[in-house]
Structure formats: structure tokens, C-alpha cells
Amino acid sequence: MRKSLTKITSGLALAATLVSLGALANEEGVMNGDPANGKKIFTEGKGAAPACMTCHGEAGWGTEAMGAPRLNNLGFPYIVKQLTDLAEGRRTPSGAGAVMPLFAQQLTEQDRRDVSAYVNSLPEDPKDLSDLQAIKDSGQPIGTRYLGEILVKYGVDGKVSACQSCHGFNGRGAAPVFPVIGEQKFTYLVNQLHNWRDASRANDPYGMMRAIAKNLTDDDILNAATYLATAPRTTEGNSRVPNTTR
Fold it and tell me: Reduced to 3 states, what is the DSSP secondary structure of residue 68?
């Protein structure tokens, strides 16, 4: 009985959190950016900020070697939030991403919306998914795909919720609150899960990702990233991809 009440209470708390997050995302996600100006910044840069495409690629597919994420399927509200958090000190990346706060600070609030609007207009079709074999051959560890699929689809009872509980089937996103994590760069996924786990990244609403990631082992992180990096967006026999980001 006590266990059932705990599950009900947890479910109600999650529902309340999702409603609150949805309201916040809808407020931030009004599409009022200028894609033309966003394209100029993305391809040419502004001030001390270089062109976004330098690291994220011309089509926003990301760069594995730099740990730069794929952007072209994240959705307008999420990109606006990340650029704002970077500019205002709520997100402070390490490694190659450590330059992002400086770059984001070169942009006005409207610039950030313009860049987000342009990125949101780019085709979503992936053309440069992570080459897991090449990553393995380079000496970097990768995970076990089927174990990652279990984590993504089912989670581990009493330990961690399924990734798709929030991020949708195979991580294809649940706009406007939860970003796409499927077909994201492997290296970026691994880095961010480590950052959530050690709380060096802390711009998740209500600490949701930190609460989940703290229960993940190194192997869990590699397994989940290995599956998500090439996870199909559709079920077998169904070629239709729902609009989950825009």
C-alpha cells in the first residue's frame, strides 16, 4: 500500500512539474526570431563570436571530434534557453565548449532568437550520424547497444526512469519541453550525461536530469549514448516521423 501511494505521489509530482515546464517553454518559445539575421550570425559570426557553423557544421549536424552537438533538430525554445543560459552564466561548459558563454554574450536577446529561428529552419534529416566503429577504433570506449536500448526504452526499476518517458520514442523529442536526444552526437551525449551526474551542468528545470543522471554508472552512460546516437526515429515499417520539435 505504501509503495503504491509513493508511486501515485511521484506521478502527481511529475505531472505538476511537466505542466509547469510546459507553461515556461510556451512562454519562451514564441517564434519571434528573424531567420535571415540568424543565418548571417550562424554563417559569419558577430563581434568576437565566430560563425556557429565553425563548430556545429554548415547544416547544424555537429562535430564529433569537438564534442559539438547537433543543433538542427533541437527546436526553437530549447536553443533559445541554452543560448540565454550560456550568456547569463547558468550554463558553464568545459572542454571545447568552454568558449560558448563568451560567444553567447556577444549576442543580444534578439540575436539569440534569430539564430534559434534560423537553426530551427534547417532540414532535420541526419546526414552525419556518429560513426561508432570509428570512435571505437580511435581508442575511445563505446557501450553495448542492446543494453542502451533497455535503458532508453524501459529504464531500470528502482534506479532510473526510461529516457523515452520524457524524451519520446528513441529520444526523438517532446516539444516544447524535452529536446531531441536521439541521433545526437555520441561524444556530446556522453559528456552531458557526465556533466549532469556530477552537477557541473545545472541548468535543467527542477534538477530533473541531475536527479536521473546521479544514478547512472559509467557503463550506463556509454550504453545509453551508444544506442541513442543512431537510434531510429520511427518504428519498423513506419516511415512517418511525427513533428516532435517544432
Answer: strand
pTM: 0.86
Q: Work out the number of other CB atoms within 10 angstroms of the CB of residue 27.
A: 10
Give, in order, the Cα–Cα distances in Å from 167 to each of 14, 35, 102, 152, 153: 14, 26, 29, 9, 10
Q: Which three cell numbers stand for residue 202?
A: 545545472
152 and 111 in a common domain: no
Instruction: Give the alpha-carbon dihedral of 83, 64, 179, 43, to 10 degrees.
Output: 40
Q: What's the structural domain count of the chain?
A: 2
Alpha-carbon dihedral sign for residues 233, 100, 205, 210: positive
Write the CB contacts of 133 (distance below 8 Å, at least 6 apart in sequence). none
Residue 174 bridge partners (DSSP) = 178
Domain that holds residue 153: 132-228
Specify the pLDDT at position 77: 94
- In-domain check, residue 79: yes
SS3 at position 241: coil
**Averaged pLDDT, 124-136:** 89
- Express each pLDDT in 57-88 by its tens digit: 999 999 999 999 999 989 999 999 999 999 99
- Residue 7: pLDDT above 50? no
CA atoms within 13 A on the CB side of 118: 20
Condensed to tens digits (0 to 9), the pLDDT of residues 160-198 reads 999 999 999 999 998 888 999 999 999 999 999 999 999
User: Same structural domain for residues 163 and 201?
Assistant: yes
